[in-house]
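Q: Structure tokens for this one, please.
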Amino acid sequence: MSRYRQRTRLAAIIAGMSMVPALPTWGDDLETGRALARSHCAVCHVIGDYNKFGGIGSTPSFQLLASMKDGAARFQTFYARRPHLSFVTLPDQKPPTNLPLNAPPVTLTYEQVDAIVRYGLTLKDPRLTN
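A: Here is the predicted structure, written as tokens:
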């Protein structure tokens, strides 16, 4: 089985096991998620008011992702989705190729992935909510 298929399968299993709604009572976890998102994800994504005019134009903001019908699933499997698959690694995973990266490498723990997911799901796109 290819590394991509392994990571995709792992992402699906984790997504199924962690279908927990984002609640503001997670406090420290949300702060950790916010800090991780700002340090790693803001390079490509707009994240809240942190970098309103940053990110890459063709990359959806965290707010837009959280507002999508499948937003929770997108966040919960982000590390197995393109282009993240090329530069995000987890403790038991290796990059799918030895080719040079086109983005700075990011190594996350599963707890950090959960924190980013929970934080991201708190950011709704104000254009799509009343």
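A few notes: The two ends are 46 Å apart (CA to CA). Residues 22 and 118 are 5 Å apart (CA to CA).
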